[in-house]
Design goal:
Elements (H helix, E strand, L loop, with lengths): L1 H7 L16 H4 L11 H8 L8 H7 L1
Helix pairs in contact: 3-4
Amino acid sequence: MAAQITRNDPGLDYKPRPTLVPLAPEQAADLPIDTDKASPARIYDYLLDGKKNYAVDPVCATG
């Protein structure tokens, strides 16, 4: 039955996701950080009382 469904809808075929590889430090150092726009990761850091956030992040976290 599952084979029949897959034959009728090729979009259901299993396709493994590509493996993500982290950037090398020298590549990551060239990426810009926009400190005028909130980042979900930095907002989360702020909510956890972290120190890696900017002034715009707490404003977005509190609404």
